[in-house]
Structure to design on (545 residues):
């Protein structure tokens, strides 16, 4: 499972993309997701693809690793393509198979939609591949900052996210420990009909939940003992700073967008 | 006479109206630079004392004075600056995603400037010899290492009192030794009061004064040597007697004259070979 899907998996590195401010990456990707839907000519698609591929190469993460990581997504892309082949009936009929006509428009449409899909997934997975979860959290906290004015608990949300991230490995270790303990008592997690295996998860989840709640309570007490009293008057160790490279990327992205507007048809 | 830092005056506490009293009319003082220990069996009220000291709980009766301030809802934030606490479970008090984030947490809460934070992180991590782990994530550390980080994060806010609430109970013997050594070092270096809360008599050996708790009451208050001499009574209130103390007791029964109550292997050895050389 872990090596099947790379979305959400960080690959350490020191490339330009890695060092970019998380806010830069998130903003660019946010807008990229929108402008992908504006592309409608071969050249405009090429512009976007060039941008995506260039970013991918700059990360210095092996391309094979990225493409292999997208395996489950390939099926979806393929499926989208075939669906469009069948459903769309614009343009001229190219072939006739068992009463199904494949139109020229369908092929173009199929390619276009699959391409969009591919670009979206590639670019968004680049974010998580090159940014640690905690950087993403910091970025989100900073960008949501204006929402504080309408009493949106930005700081609390960010703290919740970072504590969850911190406890994921701890709870994974715990799950493993419990599953071994239960297996040694004769609980069978691997064989038998699906219904039995689902039932076997119960003795795993119950102790896990009990201990998670106990942890939460102790953590809250430890946090209070260390003077935690909400986001007011707090300073931060981790600081986000926009550098020249961030400006450069913004500029590049604006140029790409401009190029897209010039090359698309209206 | 050293100055009083922590003072409990006739403190009683229970968790609810219908519940039994966990602490009954406890009075004691802890002085500046003192290494004190509070010992007792499970449920004797020793951890409650720790939580009362920095306002995680409030007493129903009596008053608590810390560094000249009476403990009230208003003063708890000031008091928590003076009272640092390390808890039992190494995992459940680690807030940050990395070692340095965790040390920073307490400082962030108190609004300390970033440059100052970086400086203090450096110093405190060195003090507990964890400076080569700054960017390590908690799940890659051992229990003892996590506890050392917990001590560092408490030290970073310059407390007056360091409370170890069963801080070594979940560690292996090596981790336990490491922690005790670290704690002794920083206590000497920083002129802290140290309060070790434990059920293990072995850990009170280094203390200057021991407070023994039993069923929510102070059962005895003395130097470790005097406490160790009361083996039978200690056993009665549910405490484990260290091997050395039992051994010297047995030797005495066997007719060996032992005048001084031995606290460690070395002391017993000293006692034995000197007593033989004179006879």
């Amino acid at each position: 499972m872990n090596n099947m899907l790379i979305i959400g998996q960080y690959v350490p590195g020191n490339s330009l993309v890695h060092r970019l401010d998380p806010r830069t990456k998130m903003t660019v990707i946010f807008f990229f997701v929108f402008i992908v839907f504006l592309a409608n000519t071969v050249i405009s698609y090429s512009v976007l693809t060039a941008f995506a591929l260039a970013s991918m190469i700059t990360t210095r993460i092996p391309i094979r690793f990225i493409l292999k990581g997208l395996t489950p997504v390939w099926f979806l892309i393929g499926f989208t393509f075939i669906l469009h082949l069948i459903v769309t009936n614009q343009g001229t009929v190219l072939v006739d198979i068992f009463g199904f006509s494949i139109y020229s428009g369908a092929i173009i449409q199929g390619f276009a939609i699959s391409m969009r899909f591919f670009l979206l997934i590639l670019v968004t997975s680049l974010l998580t591949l090159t940014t640690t979860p905690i950087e993403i959290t910091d970025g989100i906290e900073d960008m949501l900052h204006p929402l504080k004015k309408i009493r949106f608990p930005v700081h609390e949300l960010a703290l919740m996210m970072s504590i969850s991230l911190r406890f994921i490995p701890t709870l994974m270790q715990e799950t493993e420990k419990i599953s071994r303990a239960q297996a040694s008592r004769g609980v069978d997690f691997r064989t038998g009909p699906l219904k039995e295996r689902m039932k076997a998860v119960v003795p795993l989840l119950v102790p896990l939940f009990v201990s998670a709640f106990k942890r939460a309570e102790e953590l809250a007490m430890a946090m209070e003992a260390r003077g935690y009293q909400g986001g007011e008057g707090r300073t931060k160790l981790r600081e986000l700073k926009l550098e020249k490279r961030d400006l450069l990327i913004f500029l590049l992205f604006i140029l790409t967008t401009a190029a897209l507007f010039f090359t698309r048809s209206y | 006479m050293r100055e009083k830092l922590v003072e409990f005056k006739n403190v009683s506490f229970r968790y609810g109206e219908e519940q039994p009293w966990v602490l009954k009319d406890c009075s004691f003082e802890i002085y500046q630079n003192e290494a004190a220990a509070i010992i007792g069996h499970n449920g004797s009220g020793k951890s409650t004392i720790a939580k009362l000291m920095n306002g995680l709980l409030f007493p129903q009766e009596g008053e608590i004075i810390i560094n000249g301030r009476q403990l009230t809802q208003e003063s708890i934030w000031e008091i928590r600056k003076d009272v640092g606490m390390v808890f039992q479970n190494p995992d459940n008090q680690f807030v940050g995603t990395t070692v340095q984030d965790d040390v920073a947490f307490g400082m962030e809460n108190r609004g300390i400037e970033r440059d100052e934070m970086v400086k203090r992180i450096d110093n405190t991590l060195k003090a507990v010899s964890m400076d080569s782990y700054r960017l390590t994530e908690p799940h890659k550390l051992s229990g003892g290492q996590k506890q050392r980080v917990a001590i560092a994060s408490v030290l970073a806010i310059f407390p007056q009192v360091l409370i170890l609430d069963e801080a070594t109970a979940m560690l292996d013997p090596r981790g336990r030794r490491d922690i005790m050594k670290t704690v002794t070092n920083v206590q000497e270096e920083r002129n802290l009061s140290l309060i070790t809360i434990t059920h293990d008599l072995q850990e009170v050996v280094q203390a200057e004064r021991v407070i023994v708790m039993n069923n929510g009451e102070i059962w005895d208050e003395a130097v470790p040597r005097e406490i160790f001499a009361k083996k039978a009574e200690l056993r009665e209130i549910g405490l484990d007697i260290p091997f050395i103390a039992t051994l010297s007791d047995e030797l005495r029964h066997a007719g060996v004259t032992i005048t001084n109550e031995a606290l460690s292997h070395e002391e017993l050895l000293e006692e034995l070979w000197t007593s033989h050389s004179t006879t």
The beta strands of chain B are 4-13, 23-31, 35-39, 61-66, 69-70, 83-86, 161-165, 193-198, 209-214, 217-222. Residues 242-279 of chain B form one domain. The mean pLDDT of chain B is 88.
